[in-house]
Design brief:
It is built from two helices and no strands. By secondary structure, it is mainly α.
């Protein structure tokens, strides 16, 4: 059985992103990993499927978010402070 896999690659970062983590968050989850995905578009069904997958990960692998919490944000709507 052959499975098609889309090629993904790491791109050089043109503008550095700075992620601030509050000390109170570090007490709960001491590690942070961030990724910026470009060229991804969502229609309503695809977005719902993505959120459903995120919820399943939270409930299972993330142990009801006690180990990991996944956040999905539209980078174009995040304001720099």
């Amino acid at each position: 059985m052959h499975t098609h896999v889309d090629p993904y690659s790491l791109a050089k970062q043109h503008v550095p992103h700075v992620y601030k983590v509050f000390a109170t968050a570090i007490q709960v989850r001491p590690f942070v990993v961030c990724a910026v995905l470009r060229g991804v578009s969502f229609d309503a069904p695809r977005y719902k499927s993505f959120i459903d997958l995120q919820d399943k990960l939270h409930q299972n692998l993330c142990r009801q978010r006690s180990l990991v919490a996944i956040g999905t944000h539209d980078l174009s709507k995040i304001k720099v402070s």
